[in-house]
Design a protein that fits this description.
This protein is α/β, with parallel strands linked by helices and about 220 residues long. The chain contains eight helices and 14 strands.
Length: about 220
């Protein structure tokens, strides 16, 4: 799962991103309005943590642009401004939740998981396809009830495929979602091939009734076998 932290306080932004990464998320930071607009225009995120008071403008402007462009990211406003008007303005613009500073990191994690369950998982805590079940919160996968051990990136890839079951996933979007900004450091995306190969092998050995099909020159898609 990929999260964008739109926060201009460096210390808080670092605390949030590090805590999210420990929870298994890919986290990126935008420190001002312009950077937030640039990142959301060029990349897709599962959750956006959005401060209202930003250098160069309001976080509400970012939210307006997101909704104007039809982007479906889950947005949680995080702000020291706790007036009812600010809260209502954000919710009216389509924010999914509102968290007032200061907050406990554990509460932030709970809010993130909650909006993901409501939208990405249809309100359920797990994703099931055929005989495979994935619990993103516990980072656990089972096949016919037996646990399937996966490395971190293998789990992240499988979760992304499950959320996009039957849909074509390009190598670029897969790299961006699982590796975040670090994907830009690679001159090509050939490293994805070995990761997919290992994931396919693990699924086959476990007897999973799903498979990851290659679409030549474009990407992959997960289908029921």
């Amino acid at each position: 799962m990929k999260v964008l932290v739109v926060e201009d306080e460096p210390g808080l932004a670092e605390v949030i991103t590090r805590s999210l990464e420990r929870e298994g998320f890919v986290a990126e930071v935008a420190k001002d309005r312009a950077t937030a607009l640039h990142k959301t225009a060029d990349h897709q995120y599962d959750v956006i943590l959005l401060d209202i008071m930003l250098p160069g403008g309001s976080g509400l402007d970012v939210l307006r642009q997101l909704k104007h462009d039809g982007m479906a990211a889950n947005v949680i406003i995080i702000s020291a401004k706790d007036s009812l008007d600010d809260k209502l303005a954000g919710l009216d613009l389509g924010a999914d939740d509102y968290l007032t500073k200061p907050f406990h990191i554990a509460e932030l994690h709970a809010r993130v998981r909650s909006v993901l369950r409501r939208k990405a998982f249809g309100g359920a805590a797990t994703i099931s396809v055929a005989n495979l079940m994935c619990d993103p919160e516990q980072r656990r996968v089972t096949v016919d009830g037996l646990e399937l051990p996966l490395h971190r990136k293998e789990f992240d890839m499988l979760t992304y495929f499950l959320l996009n079951k039957g849909r074509l996933v390009s190598r670029g979007s897969l790299a961006e979602h699982v590796w975040g900004d670090h994907a830009d450091e690679s001159a090509d995306l050939d490293f994805i091939y070995s990761q997919i190969k290992n994931l396919r092998k693990r699924l086959k050995q476990a007897g999973a009734s799903v498979e990851i099909q290659a679409v030549y020159g474009i990407g992959y898609k997960l289908v029921e076998a």
